[in-house]
UniProtKB/TrEMBL annotation:
Record flagged with keyword NAD: no
Family: Belongs to the histone deacetylase family.
Source species of the chain: Isoptericola sediminis
Pathway the protein acts in: Ketone degradation; acetoin degradation
InterPro entries assigned to the protein according to its UniProt record, in alphabetical order: AcuC, HDACs, His_deacetylse_dom, His_deacetylse_dom_sf, Ureohydrolase_dom_sf
Alphabetical UniProt keywords: Acetoin catabolism
Record-annotated Histone deacetylase domain positions: 21-316
GO BP, sorted A to Z: acetoin catabolic process; epigenetic regulation of gene expression
GO function terms (MF aspect): histone deacetylase activity
Lineage: Bacteria, Bacillati, Actinomycetota, Actinomycetes, Micrococcales
Name of this chain's protein: Acetoin utilization protein AcuC
Pfam families: Hist_deacetyl (PF00850)
Length: 391
Protein backbone atom coordinates (compact mmCIF):
# COMPACT_ATOMS: atom_id res chain seq x y z
CA UNK A 1 0.00 0.00 0.00
CA UNK A 2 1.26 3.48 -0.83
CA UNK A 3 0.63 6.31 1.59
CA UNK A 4 -0.84 8.46 -1.18
CA UNK A 5 -1.64 8.24 -4.87
CA UNK A 6 -1.34 11.40 -6.94
CA UNK A 7 -3.39 11.17 -10.12
CA UNK A 8 -1.51 13.18 -12.70
CA UNK A 9 -0.81 13.42 -16.40
CA UNK A 10 0.07 16.39 -18.63
CA UNK A 11 -3.15 15.46 -20.45
CA UNK A 12 -5.00 17.13 -17.56
CA UNK A 13 -3.69 20.46 -18.88
CA UNK A 14 -6.05 20.09 -21.85
CA UNK A 15 -8.92 21.33 -19.65
CA UNK A 16 -8.44 24.79 -21.11
CA UNK A 17 -11.16 27.37 -21.80
CA UNK A 18 -8.76 29.59 -23.69
CA UNK A 19 -6.55 32.63 -23.36
CA UNK A 20 -7.65 35.01 -20.63
CA UNK A 21 -9.97 32.57 -18.86
CA UNK A 22 -9.37 32.41 -15.08
CA UNK A 23 -9.26 28.59 -15.07
CA UNK A 24 -5.79 28.64 -16.59
CA UNK A 25 -3.88 25.36 -17.01
CA UNK A 26 -0.84 27.25 -15.70
CA UNK A 27 -2.30 26.70 -12.20
CA UNK A 28 -1.65 22.99 -12.58
CA UNK A 29 1.62 23.26 -14.51
CA UNK A 30 3.14 25.52 -11.85
CA UNK A 31 1.86 23.32 -9.04
CA UNK A 32 3.43 20.21 -10.55
CA UNK A 33 6.66 22.12 -11.20
CA UNK A 34 6.76 23.14 -7.52
CA UNK A 35 5.98 19.59 -6.37
CA UNK A 36 8.85 18.39 -8.53
CA UNK A 37 11.34 21.03 -7.36
CA UNK A 38 10.48 20.30 -3.73
CA UNK A 39 11.42 16.65 -4.27
CA UNK A 40 7.98 15.32 -3.38
CA UNK A 41 7.83 13.02 -6.40
CA UNK A 42 10.81 11.16 -4.94
CA UNK A 43 9.09 10.45 -1.63
CA UNK A 44 8.67 6.68 -1.17
CA UNK A 45 5.10 7.05 0.09
CA UNK A 46 3.86 8.99 -2.95
CA UNK A 47 2.85 7.10 -6.08
CA UNK A 48 2.01 8.96 -9.30
CA UNK A 49 -0.68 7.29 -11.42
CA UNK A 50 -1.73 8.26 -14.95
CA UNK A 51 -5.52 8.82 -15.09
CA UNK A 52 -7.76 7.85 -18.00
CA UNK A 53 -10.95 9.44 -19.34
CA UNK A 54 -14.11 8.38 -17.58
CA UNK A 55 -16.45 6.42 -19.90
CA UNK A 56 -19.99 7.71 -20.40
CA UNK A 57 -21.48 5.15 -18.04
CA UNK A 58 -19.32 6.53 -15.23
CA UNK A 59 -20.22 10.13 -16.05
CA UNK A 60 -23.87 9.12 -16.00
CA UNK A 61 -23.67 8.06 -12.36
CA UNK A 62 -23.95 11.79 -11.55
CA UNK A 63 -25.02 13.38 -14.87
CA UNK A 64 -28.00 12.90 -17.18
CA UNK A 65 -27.21 10.96 -20.34
CA UNK A 66 -28.71 13.79 -22.43
CA UNK A 67 -26.27 16.23 -20.86
CA UNK A 68 -23.24 14.03 -21.56
CA UNK A 69 -24.39 13.76 -25.16
CA UNK A 70 -24.80 17.56 -25.29
CA UNK A 71 -21.22 18.08 -24.10
CA UNK A 72 -19.93 15.70 -26.79
CA UNK A 73 -22.03 17.46 -29.44
CA UNK A 74 -20.95 20.97 -28.44
CA UNK A 75 -17.28 19.97 -28.40
CA UNK A 76 -17.59 18.41 -31.85
CA UNK A 77 -19.59 21.16 -33.53
CA UNK A 78 -18.38 24.18 -31.58
CA UNK A 79 -22.01 25.27 -31.24
CA UNK A 80 -23.07 26.59 -27.81
CA UNK A 81 -25.86 25.04 -25.80
CA UNK A 82 -26.55 27.85 -23.38
CA UNK A 83 -29.53 26.09 -21.81
CA UNK A 84 -27.05 23.49 -20.56
CA UNK A 85 -24.41 26.04 -19.62
CA UNK A 86 -22.19 25.28 -22.61
CA UNK A 87 -20.79 28.18 -24.60
CA UNK A 88 -21.24 30.78 -21.86
CA UNK A 89 -18.62 33.25 -20.65
CA UNK A 90 -17.85 30.94 -17.72
CA UNK A 91 -17.83 27.72 -19.75
CA UNK A 92 -16.79 28.40 -23.37
CA UNK A 93 -16.90 25.46 -25.76
CA UNK A 94 -13.52 24.06 -26.84
CA UNK A 95 -12.72 21.03 -29.04
CA UNK A 96 -11.26 18.78 -26.30
CA UNK A 97 -13.95 19.70 -23.79
CA UNK A 98 -15.57 16.28 -23.34
CA UNK A 99 -12.35 14.28 -23.16
CA UNK A 100 -10.59 16.81 -20.94
CA UNK A 101 -13.48 17.05 -18.49
CA UNK A 102 -13.98 13.27 -18.52
CA UNK A 103 -10.29 12.79 -17.62
CA UNK A 104 -10.78 14.96 -14.53
CA UNK A 105 -13.59 12.63 -13.50
CA UNK A 106 -11.51 9.56 -14.28
CA UNK A 107 -8.74 10.88 -12.05
CA UNK A 108 -10.97 11.60 -9.06
CA UNK A 109 -12.77 8.27 -9.34
CA UNK A 110 -9.42 6.47 -9.62
CA UNK A 111 -8.34 8.21 -6.42
CA UNK A 112 -11.53 7.03 -4.73
CA UNK A 113 -10.97 3.47 -6.00
CA UNK A 114 -7.40 3.45 -4.68
CA UNK A 115 -8.53 4.62 -1.25
CA UNK A 116 -11.50 2.27 -0.95
CA UNK A 117 -9.58 -0.78 -2.22
CA UNK A 118 -6.72 -0.17 0.18
CA UNK A 119 -4.10 0.39 -2.52
CA UNK A 120 -3.47 3.79 -0.94
CA UNK A 121 -4.52 5.53 2.24
CA UNK A 122 -5.06 8.83 0.46
CA UNK A 123 -5.81 9.85 -3.13
CA UNK A 124 -5.14 13.29 -4.63
CA UNK A 125 -6.32 14.96 -7.83
CA UNK A 126 -5.22 18.59 -7.87
CA UNK A 127 -6.94 19.04 -11.26
CA UNK A 128 -10.29 18.00 -9.81
CA UNK A 129 -12.82 19.67 -7.56
CA UNK A 130 -15.22 20.85 -10.29
CA UNK A 131 -17.96 21.30 -7.72
CA UNK A 132 -20.40 23.59 -9.56
CA UNK A 133 -21.41 21.24 -12.39
CA UNK A 134 -24.99 20.05 -12.07
CA UNK A 135 -26.62 16.85 -13.26
CA UNK A 136 -27.84 18.55 -16.41
CA UNK A 137 -25.64 21.62 -16.93
CA UNK A 138 -22.18 23.13 -16.76
CA UNK A 139 -21.66 25.98 -14.33
CA UNK A 140 -18.86 28.11 -12.92
CA UNK A 141 -15.95 26.72 -15.01
CA UNK A 142 -17.13 23.16 -14.29
CA UNK A 143 -18.28 20.82 -17.08
CA UNK A 144 -18.47 17.47 -15.26
CA UNK A 145 -18.63 17.09 -11.48
CA UNK A 146 -15.68 14.86 -10.61
CA UNK A 147 -16.15 15.46 -6.87
CA UNK A 148 -19.68 14.08 -6.97
CA UNK A 149 -18.53 11.17 -9.13
CA UNK A 150 -15.87 10.26 -6.54
CA UNK A 151 -18.46 10.35 -3.75
CA UNK A 152 -20.87 8.23 -5.79
CA UNK A 153 -18.14 5.71 -6.60
CA UNK A 154 -17.42 5.26 -2.89
CA UNK A 155 -21.13 4.64 -2.24
CA UNK A 156 -21.35 2.19 -5.13
CA UNK A 157 -18.27 0.40 -3.81
CA UNK A 158 -19.85 -0.21 -0.42
CA UNK A 159 -19.33 2.87 1.71
CA UNK A 160 -22.32 3.41 3.98
CA UNK A 161 -21.56 7.08 4.69
CA UNK A 162 -19.35 9.55 2.82
CA UNK A 163 -18.55 13.09 3.96
CA UNK A 164 -17.83 15.73 1.33
CA UNK A 165 -15.96 18.79 2.66
CA UNK A 166 -15.64 21.91 0.49
CA UNK A 167 -13.14 24.64 1.45
CA UNK A 168 -13.51 26.72 -1.73
CA UNK A 169 -14.49 30.38 -1.38
CA UNK A 170 -17.53 29.57 -3.57
CA UNK A 171 -20.32 27.36 -2.30
CA UNK A 172 -20.13 23.74 -3.40
CA UNK A 173 -23.60 23.91 -4.90
CA UNK A 174 -23.33 21.19 -7.54
CA UNK A 175 -22.24 18.45 -5.14
CA UNK A 176 -24.80 19.56 -2.58
CA UNK A 177 -27.61 19.47 -5.15
CA UNK A 178 -26.69 16.02 -6.43
CA UNK A 179 -26.77 14.56 -2.90
CA UNK A 180 -29.43 16.87 -1.45
CA UNK A 181 -31.74 14.01 -0.42
CA UNK A 182 -29.11 11.25 -0.04
CA UNK A 183 -28.86 10.26 3.65
CA UNK A 184 -25.56 8.45 3.09
CA UNK A 185 -23.80 11.68 2.13
CA UNK A 186 -23.10 14.73 4.26
CA UNK A 187 -21.94 17.81 2.34
CA UNK A 188 -20.10 20.52 4.26
CA UNK A 189 -19.21 23.85 2.63
CA UNK A 190 -17.47 26.86 4.18
CA UNK A 191 -17.64 29.77 1.74
CA UNK A 192 -18.21 33.45 1.24
CA UNK A 193 -21.84 34.36 1.83
CA UNK A 194 -23.83 33.65 -1.33
CA UNK A 195 -25.50 37.06 -1.11
CA UNK A 196 -22.12 38.52 -2.05
CA UNK A 197 -20.58 35.91 -4.37
CA UNK A 198 -21.36 33.36 -7.09
CA UNK A 199 -23.25 31.01 -7.10
CA UNK A 200 -25.55 32.79 -4.66
CA UNK A 201 -26.40 29.68 -2.63
CA UNK A 202 -25.25 27.99 0.56
CA UNK A 203 -27.44 29.57 3.21
CA UNK A 204 -27.06 28.13 6.73
CA UNK A 205 -30.75 27.19 6.68
CA UNK A 206 -30.14 24.85 3.73
CA UNK A 207 -29.65 21.51 5.48
CA UNK A 208 -30.90 19.05 2.86
CA UNK A 209 -34.17 17.38 1.99
CA UNK A 210 -33.83 14.37 4.26
CA UNK A 211 -36.57 13.64 6.79
CA UNK A 212 -35.32 14.04 10.36
CA UNK A 213 -31.68 14.18 9.32
CA UNK A 214 -29.18 16.68 7.99
CA UNK A 215 -27.50 16.09 4.63
CA UNK A 216 -26.02 19.57 4.06
CA UNK A 217 -24.02 21.90 6.31
CA UNK A 218 -23.30 25.44 5.11
CA UNK A 219 -21.08 28.01 6.81
CA UNK A 220 -21.60 31.31 4.96
CA UNK A 221 -18.90 33.80 5.98
CA UNK A 222 -18.91 37.57 5.49
CA UNK A 223 -16.53 39.12 2.95
CA UNK A 224 -13.04 39.89 4.26
CA UNK A 225 -13.10 37.06 6.80
CA UNK A 226 -9.44 36.54 7.65
CA UNK A 227 -7.37 33.46 8.47
CA UNK A 228 -8.14 33.54 12.19
CA UNK A 229 -11.89 33.87 11.63
CA UNK A 230 -11.91 31.20 8.92
CA UNK A 231 -10.07 28.67 11.07
CA UNK A 232 -12.37 29.44 13.99
CA UNK A 233 -15.40 28.88 11.75
CA UNK A 234 -14.14 25.59 10.32
CA UNK A 235 -13.14 24.28 13.75
CA UNK A 236 -16.43 25.36 15.31
CA UNK A 237 -18.49 23.17 12.99
CA UNK A 238 -16.59 20.62 10.92
CA UNK A 239 -14.97 18.26 13.46
CA UNK A 240 -18.11 18.00 15.55
CA UNK A 241 -20.49 17.18 12.71
CA UNK A 242 -18.03 14.75 11.09
CA UNK A 243 -17.62 12.87 14.36
CA UNK A 244 -21.40 12.64 14.70
CA UNK A 245 -21.83 11.54 11.08
CA UNK A 246 -19.01 8.95 11.34
CA UNK A 247 -18.11 8.67 7.64
CA UNK A 248 -16.46 5.65 6.04
CA UNK A 249 -14.50 8.01 3.76
CA UNK A 250 -13.89 11.74 3.31
CA UNK A 251 -13.76 13.56 -0.04
CA UNK A 252 -12.49 17.12 0.28
CA UNK A 253 -12.22 20.03 -2.14
CA UNK A 254 -9.34 22.46 -1.56
CA UNK A 255 -10.14 25.44 -3.74
CA UNK A 256 -7.46 28.04 -2.96
CA UNK A 257 -9.60 31.07 -3.85
CA UNK A 258 -10.32 31.97 -0.22
CA UNK A 259 -6.88 33.62 -0.22
CA UNK A 260 -6.75 37.40 0.02
CA UNK A 261 -4.87 37.67 -3.29
CA UNK A 262 -7.49 35.80 -5.29
CA UNK A 263 -9.20 38.03 -7.88
CA UNK A 264 -12.57 36.25 -7.87
CA UNK A 265 -13.52 36.23 -4.17
CA UNK A 266 -13.39 38.55 -1.17
CA UNK A 267 -12.07 36.44 1.70
CA UNK A 268 -8.60 36.87 3.21
CA UNK A 269 -7.43 33.37 4.16
CA UNK A 270 -3.69 32.81 3.95
CA UNK A 271 -1.66 29.81 2.84
CA UNK A 272 -0.94 28.75 6.42
CA UNK A 273 -4.64 28.63 7.31
CA UNK A 274 -5.48 26.58 4.22
CA UNK A 275 -2.55 24.28 5.03
CA UNK A 276 -3.89 23.91 8.57
CA UNK A 277 -7.35 22.93 7.33
CA UNK A 278 -5.79 20.24 5.12
CA UNK A 279 -3.97 18.88 8.15
CA UNK A 280 -7.20 18.81 10.14
CA UNK A 281 -8.93 16.83 7.40
CA UNK A 282 -6.00 14.43 7.23
CA UNK A 283 -6.18 13.88 10.97
CA UNK A 284 -9.96 13.44 10.89
CA UNK A 285 -9.63 10.86 8.12
CA UNK A 286 -7.26 8.81 10.27
CA UNK A 287 -9.44 9.28 13.35
CA UNK A 288 -12.80 8.49 11.76
CA UNK A 289 -12.32 6.34 8.65
CA UNK A 290 -9.00 4.51 8.77
CA UNK A 291 -7.33 7.21 6.69
CA UNK A 292 -9.65 6.97 3.67
CA UNK A 293 -9.27 10.47 2.24
CA UNK A 294 -9.69 11.76 -1.32
CA UNK A 295 -8.35 15.30 -1.71
CA UNK A 296 -9.18 17.43 -4.77
CA UNK A 297 -8.16 20.83 -6.10
CA UNK A 298 -10.85 23.30 -7.16
CA UNK A 299 -10.96 27.06 -7.56
CA UNK A 300 -8.01 29.39 -7.16
CA UNK A 301 -7.00 32.08 -9.63
CA UNK A 302 -3.88 33.65 -8.12
CA UNK A 303 -1.88 31.25 -10.23
CA UNK A 304 1.67 32.21 -9.20
CA UNK A 305 1.65 33.26 -5.56
CA UNK A 306 -1.14 31.13 -4.08
CA UNK A 307 -2.45 28.06 -5.91
CA UNK A 308 0.84 26.16 -6.38
CA UNK A 309 1.75 26.76 -2.73
CA UNK A 310 -1.57 25.53 -1.33
CA UNK A 311 -1.73 22.44 -3.54
CA UNK A 312 1.92 21.46 -3.17
CA UNK A 313 1.36 21.64 0.59
CA UNK A 314 -1.77 19.50 0.18
CA UNK A 315 0.16 16.80 -1.69
CA UNK A 316 2.93 16.89 0.93
CA UNK A 317 0.37 16.57 3.73
CA UNK A 318 -1.27 13.56 2.08
CA UNK A 319 2.15 11.97 1.54
CA UNK A 320 2.93 12.35 5.27
CA UNK A 321 5.81 14.76 4.61
CA UNK A 322 4.21 18.12 5.51
CA UNK A 323 5.89 21.34 4.44
CA UNK A 324 6.83 24.04 6.92
CA UNK A 325 5.03 27.36 6.64
CA UNK A 326 7.46 30.10 5.66
CA UNK A 327 10.03 27.75 4.15
CA UNK A 328 11.95 29.19 1.18
CA UNK A 329 10.68 28.08 -2.21
CA UNK A 330 13.14 26.66 -4.75
CA UNK A 331 14.84 29.29 -6.90
CA UNK A 332 14.37 27.15 -10.02
CA UNK A 333 10.62 27.15 -9.45
CA UNK A 334 10.50 30.91 -8.86
CA UNK A 335 12.39 31.55 -12.08
CA UNK A 336 10.11 29.23 -14.07
CA UNK A 337 6.99 30.78 -12.55
CA UNK A 338 8.08 34.31 -13.35
CA UNK A 339 9.09 33.37 -16.89
CA UNK A 340 5.77 31.62 -17.52
CA UNK A 341 3.56 34.32 -16.03
CA UNK A 342 5.50 37.57 -16.14
CA UNK A 343 4.50 38.05 -12.49
CA UNK A 344 6.63 38.01 -9.34
CA UNK A 345 6.62 34.58 -7.69
CA UNK A 346 6.29 33.89 -3.99
CA UNK A 347 9.60 33.44 -2.18
CA UNK A 348 8.30 31.50 0.83
CA UNK A 349 5.49 29.05 1.54
CA UNK A 350 3.17 31.60 3.03
CA UNK A 351 3.51 33.31 6.37
CA UNK A 352 2.34 32.05 9.67
CA UNK A 353 1.41 30.74 12.09
CA UNK A 354 -2.06 32.19 12.72
CA UNK A 355 -3.44 32.86 16.18
CA UNK A 356 -7.14 32.04 16.39
CA UNK A 357 -9.75 31.51 19.11
CA UNK A 358 -11.52 28.16 19.47
CA UNK A 359 -15.30 28.24 19.84
CA UNK A 360 -14.92 27.14 23.46
CA UNK A 361 -13.47 30.58 24.21
CA UNK A 362 -16.99 31.98 23.95
CA UNK A 363 -19.41 33.47 21.45
CA UNK A 364 -19.01 37.15 20.56
CA UNK A 365 -22.31 38.56 19.21
CA UNK A 366 -20.54 41.66 17.90
CA UNK A 367 -18.33 39.56 15.60
CA UNK A 368 -19.93 38.95 12.16
CA UNK A 369 -17.96 35.72 11.73
CA UNK A 370 -19.24 34.42 15.07
CA UNK A 371 -22.79 35.32 14.04
CA UNK A 372 -22.33 33.36 10.80
CA UNK A 373 -20.98 30.34 12.68
CA UNK A 374 -23.81 30.41 15.20
CA UNK A 375 -26.38 30.57 12.39
CA UNK A 376 -25.00 27.31 11.02
CA UNK A 377 -24.79 25.66 14.43
CA UNK A 378 -28.40 26.65 15.22
CA UNK A 379 -29.67 25.05 12.01
CA UNK A 380 -27.47 21.95 12.06
CA UNK A 381 -26.48 20.96 15.57
CA UNK A 382 -29.99 20.15 16.92
CA UNK A 383 -30.41 17.65 14.05
CA UNK A 384 -27.43 15.78 15.52
CA UNK A 385 -28.71 16.13 19.08
CA UNK A 386 -26.12 18.81 19.87
CA UNK A 387 -26.31 22.16 21.65
CA UNK A 388 -25.51 25.07 19.26
CA UNK A 389 -23.76 27.02 22.01
CA UNK A 390 -21.97 24.35 24.01
CA UNK A 391 -20.98 21.35 21.89
Amino acid sequence: MSVAQLLWSPELLRYDFGLGHPMAPARLALTMRLITELGLLGEPGLEVVDPVCAPDELLETVHDADYVAAVRRAATTGEPDVARGLGTEDDPVFPAMHEAAARLVGASVAAADAVWSGRAQHGINIAGGMHHARRDAASGFCVYNDAAAAVQRLLDSGAERVAYVDLDAHHGDGVEAIFWDEPRVLTFSVHQDGRTLFPGTGDPADTGAGLNHCTAVNVALPPRTDSAGWLRAVDAVLPTVLREFAPDAIVSQHGADAHGNDPLADLSVGVHAQKTAARWLHELAHELCEGRWVALGGGGYAVVDVVPLVWAALVAEAAHVPLETGMPLPAAWREAAEEMSGLPAARTLGRGPVTWRPWSSGYDPSDPTDRAVLATRRHVFPEFGLDPFLD
